[in-house]
Amino acid sequence: MKHVAVLMGGWSAEREISMVSGAAVAKSLADAGLEVTPVDVRRDMGALLTRLYPRPDAVFNALHGRFGEDGCVQGLLDILDIPYSHSGLLASALAMDKPMAKRLFVAAGIPVAEHVIADREDVTAGDVMERPYVVKPLNEGSSVGVHIVLDGDDEPLFGDTGWPYGDRVMVEKFIPGRELTVSVMGDRALAVTEIITAREFYDYDAKYADGGSRHVVPADIEKKIADEAMRLAVLAHQTLGCRGVSRADFRLDGDDLYLLEVNPQPGMTPTSLVPEQAVHAGISFQDLVVWMVDNAECDA
């Protein structure tokens, strides 16, 4: 019987949703007949994994955010020689580093929003780009720390919360329009979903709070646009060197698509975007997570 360790939790800003993803994955893998050990990841993860008996045949990495999907855990698993789900060290690091990922997307001919990298102090002191624009951390996921600055906004950019995400930030031209997302499984795009929310944008609460958003799959868009979104999602996946499952997020402005980012380790609750698209493509949640374990690898 294959023994799978499911990594979840961690200490990033996305710990809570990682616990939900991990619990869903662990249950589904156990229901499929695998031996499963859930691991609430701490900074002694290497010691935790080496003490497991029997040694895991594979790791399902259900961590989200920094340290879990940015190459850090992947590097440790490479050292331990334990195959793991999702992308390897380099692809994970590239996907989470927004400026570097954008450079690669542009080189591959993938349309992205205009952006600049600026000092935090310059951004708080005044506009570094014509409004409206979006301010993002350089290496967080799930819209953590994202702020939209519109014409007429006069509130302090970060309010009383400050900015705990480093001294450099990405300032990106705001793209109006519709929110689309495409899951990639291996080298296959599964579907296009439109995400509809009453919130200002698809932020953390819209992603994970009850009633925060509505998913329309397949998206009610022209076939040529859907086909292009799926083509670009696969191209972005390949450009970063991703493997397993990833998800590409787009804005659709008229007929123009803009890639916002690629998530190398998207949420894996049964109602998350990737499992929804898998079901639409005829793949059950259990079949999806078992496929991800069967395709687990280490970086060579």
Structure overview:
With 300 residues, this protein is α+β, with helices and mostly antiparallel strands. It has three domains: 3-85, Rossmann fold (3-Layer(aba) Sandwich); 94-111 and 176-290, D-amino Acid Aminotransferase, Chain A, domain 1, CATH 3.30.470; 115-173. The chain is 33% helix and 24% strand. It is built from ten helices and twelve strands. It has helices at residues 15-31, 45-51, 72-80, 89-96, 98-107, 120-125, 204-208, 223-240, 273-280, 285-294, and strands at 3-9, 35-41, 58-61, 115-119, 133-136, 147-149, 168-173, 178-185, 188-196, 214-216, 245-253, 256-263. Strands 10-9-8-11-12 form a five-stranded antiparallel β-sheet. Strand 11 and strand 12 (256-263) form a beta hairpin. Helix 1 crosses helix 10 (285-294). It starts with a strand and ends in a 6-residue tail after the last helix.
